[in-house]
Amino acid sequence: MIRIGTSGWRYPEWRDGFYRGIPQRRWLGHLAEHVGTIEINSSFYHPQPPSNYRKWVAETPPDFTFAVKGPKLITHVKRLRNVEEPLKAFVGSLALGPKQGPVLWQLPPTLRFDRAVLTDFLAALPPGRYAVEPRHESFRDDAYFTLLHAHNVAHVVSDAPTFPCIEAVTADFAYVRLHGHDELYISSYDDEQLDEWAGKIHEWDRDTYVYFDNTMHGAAPHNALSLMARSTSAAPREASPGRPPRRRARPA
Question: Where is this region: Disordered (predicted)?
Answer without folding.
Answer: 230-252
